[in-house]
Amino acid sequence: MNTNIRIKKFAAILGSALMGLMLATIGHAAVENVVAQVTFADPVTIVEVNSLQYGIIDHVLNAETIILGTDDSVGGTGAALVIGGTQAAAELTVDAEASQTLTILIDNIIDGTGYALSAFVCKYNGGADTACNSLTPTAVASAPLLIGATITGDNLAVPGAANGSFDVTILYQ
Amino acid sequence: MSSLNSGQWRCFRGRSGSLPSLIVAVSAFFAPAVPIAQDSPDFILPGLEDYDHLMADLATVKAEVTFAHPIGISAVSALEFGSLDQNLADLESVTVAPDNTVTDPADRVEGGPQAAASLTVAATPGVPITILVDEVVPGAGYSLTNFRCNYNTASDTACDGPGYSETSVADSTLFVGVTLIGNGNAAAGAADGSFDVTISYQ
């Protein structure tokens, strides 16, 4: 009998404790209205117009740099080693939702034999040259994206094709 | 974590657990998740975690580079008309073809060797090249026109004006022929002219 009383007392204490905890929790509840942020937009599309073209370079390229600008200009310490072919910045056509802010990302850079690719510079819709991964332009419906880059020789060049590549990703911020 | 579950189990069963362990268990059970404010950069509506990626596009762009030896040109022999009659009249012509063949309809060749210009050309093989003759400087009494080139024993091709295209070989010979046309002002003596031959990778 005493045992049953103790059990009932314990159950009563336990019930009171649980109720107290539940009430304490309810007492701290708050309501916050949450905005569901949704923006509808045309997906970004990229169409390559032409690749990044350095043309023909003297295979003696050692540690010199050849800078190909977004305006197709050639500079750098190895500019005189460009001995033929066409020199042209890469050109892409970017279609996007106007007024949205874009992020441009260059990655997956694959160097060719004899050189490394670096210092990618982008020019979107006639704007200023900007380091590609720092460029966050406001989109227009359709605009060109010009990309220049620098190649730096490593003294391993041999005559022949030595193409590299890189990925350009464009997304809404 | 396993002890927490064990604590919950003891709670619901209402036995064999001490009060402290129950409190820990129940507290854990009701503890709210740490909320992410909706203005946080990390706030993403459920189901839209890949939103940005769905809206992005990716293009792989080629960086086109070709390494090559610089083209080397070395003159082996000049273009030779030999000795011509100083009475070469206006519009009379003498032609030396790339194979040294001489065409002399007015019979003005008097002597000396007649030979096409010969140049050795070294280049990286397999690359498109342009062969071009320009900067033509005529001598007194004539003009030079209708340049014809033969690279690596291919067919004769006009090489003045914009030039023409060939595919490079490692080492070869370029022969250049031309037509000399009198202007009625020839005089006795040397009357050398000149021209430039340019070969470039395309």
Highlighted features:
heterodimer, A: 173 residues, 7-stranded antiparallel β-sheet, 1 helix, 12 strands, 42% strand, elongated, B: 202 residues, Immunoglobulin-like, 3 helices, 40% strand
Quick structural summary:
Chain A contains one helix and twelve strands. By secondary structure, chain A is of the alpha+beta class. The model of chain A has no long low-confidence stretch (mean pLDDT 89).
Main β-sheet of chain B: number of strands, strand sense, barrel status? 7 strands, antiparallel
| CATH hierarchy, class of the largest domain in chain B | Mainly Beta
The total count of strands of chain A amounts to 12
Cα Rg of chain B: 43 Å
The global form of chain B is: elongated
The structural class of chain A is alpha+beta
Q: How much β-strand is present in the residues of chain A?
A: 35-45%
Note down, in words, how this protein is organized:
The complex is a heterodimer of chains A (173) and B (202). Chain A is 15% helix and 42% strand. Chain A is α+β, with helices and mostly antiparallel strands and 173 residues long. Chain A has one domain (45-172): Sandwich (Immunoglobulin-like), CATH 2.60.40. In chain A, strands 1, 3, 4, 6, 8, 9 and 10 form a seven-stranded antiparallel sheet that branches. A two-stranded antiparallel sheet of chain A has the order 2-5. In chain A, a hairpin with a 5-residue loop joins strand 8 and strand 9. The relative contact order of chain A is 0.21. With 202 residues, chain B is mainly beta. Chain B folds into two domains: 2-55, no CATH class; 72-201, Immunoglobulin-like, CATH 2.60.40. In chain B, strands 2, 4, 5, 7, 9, 10 and 12 form a seven-stranded antiparallel sheet that branches. In chain B, strands 11-8-13 form a three-stranded antiparallel sheet, with no helix packed on it. Chain B has a two-stranded antiparallel sheet with strand order 3-6. In chain B, helix 1 packs across helix 2 (19-30). Chain B is elongated and about 80 Å long. At the A-B interface, helix 1, strand 1, strand 2, strand 10 and strand 11 of A face helix 2, helix 3 and strand 1 of B.
